[in-house]
Each structure stands twice: as C-alpha cells, then as structure tokens.
Amino acid sequence: MSEKTIQKVTLPFLRKMKKKGRKITALTAYDFPTAKIVDQAGIDVILVGDSLGMVVLGYENTIPVTMDEMIHHTKAVTRAVKRALIVGDMPYFSYHLSSEETVLNASRFLKEAGANAVKIEGASEKRLELVKTMIEADIPVMGHVGLTPQSIYHLGRFKVRGKEIEGAKQIVRMAVDLEKAGVFAVVLECVPMELAKIITNRLEIPTIGIGAGPLCDGQILVFHDLVGYSNGYLPKFVKRYAELHEVLNKAVQGYIEDVRSETFPEDKYSYHFKSKKDLKELK
Ligand code: KIV
Question: pLDDT at position 143, please?
C-alpha cells in the first residue's frame, strides 16, 4: 500500500466492520520496530497493553506498571504506526482515585503519546462514571471484562471467568453497562465462547476476544505469544505462528561462535584506508 492510500482506522470504521460482519484484527505492541511490522502487515488495532509489564519489563504481573512506562512505550508505538488505531492501556492505579486524576492520566495517552483511545478494566459503578467522564472529555474508551489481570490479587490466579450462571450474568451485565456508558468496543478475556457469542449478539459495539472463542467481532493476542518470542508458559487460547525464540537463539549462538573462532568480522564487514600512502604514514 502506498503512503498516500493509507487510511487511518477510526472508531466509526470499527463499528462498520461489525455491521458488515468483517472481523477486526488486533495485537499488542510495545516498541517501534514491532509496531511497524504489525501496522505494515495490516492489523486494525494496536493495543499498547499493560501486559508490557510481564512481557518486556519482567514484572511478575501487571500491577507495578506505571503511567510513565506506558507513555514511554506508547510514544514509541505511535511513531511507527500509519494505519492502525492505537489504544493505550491505563495501568493499575491510574484510574482508581478521582475522576480528575483519571482524565488527566487518560489525556496523557492522547496528548503526549499520540494514542487514539484508552482501555480500562472492569465495570463497577465507579468505573462506569469514570468512563462517562473520560468520554465527556473526548477520550474514546475501550472496556475490558471477563478475566481482568489487574484484579489478580482478588482472583488469586488467571483463570477462565463466567463458566457458571452467576458469573456469566455478571459479565453480560458489565458489557451492557459499558456499552451504555459509551465505550467504543469491549475486550472479552478468557470467557466461554458461548458467553462471548451472547454478548457479541447483544451489543452494537464490537467485542474483541482473547481466549473467548471465534464468535467475537474481533480477536486480540499478545504479539510475543503469537510469534513465540519466549518459550515460557503459553495459555490454551494462544496459537503460535512462529518460534522466534529458536530463530533468535540460533542467531546469537552463531554470532558467539563466529567471534570466538575469529570468522567474524571478515573483510566484507570491515573498513579500509582510502590510500596506501596514508596507511604507510600512520604506521
Ligand atoms: O494488556 C494486554 O495485553 C491486554 C490484552 C490481553 C487484551 O489487556
């Protein structure tokens, strides 16, 4: 696609995709080169997820991730992206105190980092009010229900949510309330596919599933899981499209071997003096 013909993905475009039954594609990205690859491949939505805490910063969970870390990584992503809609994930405790603080933090994603929208987890009464306040401030918001990793200490561990009637009803209610509050899309994480289907049919806004089966309006995965950047634990819902850790390991091992055996850098990777005369003088 030439630069001129690239049309930025917008909120109305996503709504139209749902109406037409065209699946929305989404992935996480946390840095410039990854965002460039993902955008140029044609992804519709890039989430700078707070999963960056676990995936690239090495935290145990997403709780320690700060606003400054999120802004730093979101800036790198927005510098690379031409087409995809960019969503900045609001980290734990950036939308938990007051509406003023929430709007200020959310606005940083748009003003400082160049994102197009923000995402928050949960749908308590207070959260719904915050969503309305952000939208009032012209900040588009994406919702997130089902497994919400920022509630890890309440949940105990990451597991499928809404497998039984009461939990399922609560998740439907949360999704409906978020739509009423004005979110433009909602992530359904780790819920039974039957529940995801019911929610998807019930809502006019798109649902984006992760571990929620094939019947959502779109799908999102963590980039590093998709490409096999590391070979650690992999949830059941992840399909691997590459084994990058193997490729990278091989490349680094090759480099180590070449340096140790003095086969790198060979002549074609080295520079030479312009004239023999200069070299002679230097010697
Ligand atoms: O932070 C993240 O990567 C997410 C996705 C899993 C939806 O919230």
Answer: 98
